[in-house]
């Protein structure tokens, strides 16, 4: 079953002044982390992605959506 994960940006102030949010469709936390690791953000904080995914809100989806990063907003 696929889920939508919605969470807070993991890069701390002052590297990210106001934080941000992200949303990902993934089968599980591990897949969500891998999809987020492929993004164009500060990779010095890549080790914090798994914690952000663990703290995220998640909701089950019906149908057969493809795994993907739906949206990101970072400052």
User: Could you name the ranges where pLDDT drops below 50 across 5 or more consecutive residues?
Assistant: none
- How many domains? The number is 1
> Based on helices, strands and strand pairing, what is the structural class?
alpha+beta
Residue-averaged pLDDT: 91
**DSSP, total strands:** 4
Binned, the helix content reads 10-25%
**Which percent range describes the beta-strand content?**
25-35%
Main sheet?
A: 4 strands, antiparallel
Series of H and E elements: EEHHEE
**Gap from first CA to last CA:** 32 Å
Figure out the total of helices. 2
Return Rg in Å.
12 Å
Overall shape: elongated
Strand order of the largest sheet: 3-1-2-4
Notes on the protein architecture:
The chain is an alpha+beta fold and 75 residues long. The protein has one domain. 20% of the residues lie in helices and 32% in strands. It has helices spanning 29-37, 49-54, and strands at residues 3-8, 20-26, 57-60, 68-74. It is elongated and about 40 Å long. The mean pLDDT is 91.
């Amino acid at each position: 079953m696929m889920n939508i994960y919605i969470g807070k940006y993991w890069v701390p102030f002052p590297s990210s002044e106001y934080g941000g949010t992200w949303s990902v469709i993934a089968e599980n936390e591990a897949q969500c982390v891998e999809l987020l690791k492929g993004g164009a953000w500060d990779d010095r904080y890549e080790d914090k992605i798994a914690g952000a995914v663990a703290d995220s809100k998640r909701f089950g989806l019906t149908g057969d959506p493809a795994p993907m990063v739906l949206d990101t907003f970072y400052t």
